[in-house]
Amino acid sequence: MDSTYLLLFIIIILVVIGGFFLIIHRFLQSEKEKQNFELRLKYSENLLPSKLQAYERMALFLERIRPSFLIRNISASGNVENYEYLLIETIQKEFEHNLAQQIYVFPKTWEIILSAKNATQLLIKEAARSLDKQSPAENLQQEIIKSSLNEQSSPSTTALLYLQKDIQG
Questions:
Q1: Of 2, 11, 108, 143, whose Cβ has the fewest other Cβ atoms within 10 Å?
Q2: What is the sign, positive or negative, of the torsion defined by CA atoms of 84, 67, 122, 105?
Q3: Over the stretch 59-94, which tens digit does the pLDDT of each residue have?
Q4: 151 has which bridge partners?
Q5: Which SS3 state, helix, strand or coil, does residue 79 take?
Q6: Where are the domains of the chain?
Q7: What backbone phi and psi angles, to 5 degrees, belong to 153?
Q8: Who's near 57: CB < 8 A, 6+ residues apart?
Q9: Which residues of 103-123 are buried (b: 16+ CB within 10 A; e: fewer)?
Q10: 136 three-state secondary structure
């Protein structure tokens, strides 16, 4: 009988120790999950302002490369060839200034922004191609205005709408 009590005692001790370890394991697992959640929350809190700033900068970029903005803010001087170069160079510099923002926006959004930049440059090049390279720069301004009016929406407008949807959802 003594061995039966001893065996029963050992089994009870093993069950208590097993239960204790199970409770400790669950507690440690819960603490680990809590720490992971807090780290993700802290990471999110640090990343969100940078991400919002990137979207703001991309919106500003898209506004600055809008053809109507460009011709309003870059005075037409010289001939068509020089003015075309100046407009394209301005877009390219603005783009390069904001290039690092791509790490904060979704890849599809970045593709749309890049497409808007390229489409705007193409619009300027096509407008210049229809004119004599040595004619006054004002002729290119007028041609860009005509081309912009003929489009339903500028590449920048389309990209801005996508950017807004992206940041809201």
A1: 2
A2: positive
A3: 999 999 999 899 999 998 899 999 999 999 999 999
A4: none
A5: strand
A6: 48-168
A7: -150, 150
A8: 98, 101
A9: ebbeeebeebbeebbebbbeb
A10: strand
